Amino acid sequence: KATAGADGDVKFGKVFAYPNPAHSKTTFRYEVEKLNVNISLMIFDISGELVFAKDEIYRESRTVGYLRYEYSWKCKNDRGIKVGSGIYIYRLEMRSGSKSDTFIGKLAVVR
Asked: Residue 89 is inside which H or E element, if any?
């Protein structure tokens, strides 16, 4: 599960994309347990070119708790054009003040 360490570190819990491989849409599911966090998503093609970026896919202030969140990506680039079949690398980054955590995973898109 996601934790906030004694020194204020922020950490992701479970993170995954489903379905994987994706056809027209995939949903990123992730767990967080930390106050005042901001989570962003970046998706790169296998050559490292950024194809999609979204800041603040999660932003919430709360007092206590452990929550699961999700964000659906329609397998389109930043211009709204469907991405081609292939392997993509996704990067979720959580920030809280000066602390951060990053999760990197692979996703296949099959057209």
From this structure: strand 86-96
How far apart CA 30 and CA 12 sit, in angstroms, is 7
Distance CA 20, CA 38 (A): 25
CB 12 within 8 Å of CB 30: yes
CA pair distance 104, 106, nearest whole angstrom: 7
Tokens of residue 4, six digits: 């906030």
Residue 18 has which token pair?
């489903």
Q: Which residues contact 35 (CB under 8 A, 6 or more apart)?
A: 4, 61, 62, 63, 96
User: For residue range 2-35, what is the model confidence (pLDDT) as tens digits?
Assistant: 344 444 577 788 899 999 999 999 999 888 876 6
Residue type, 91: R
Task: Supply the pLDDT for residue 64.
Answer: 54
The β-bridge partners of 44 are 50, 89
Query: In 3-state terms, what secondary structure has residue 83?
Result: coil
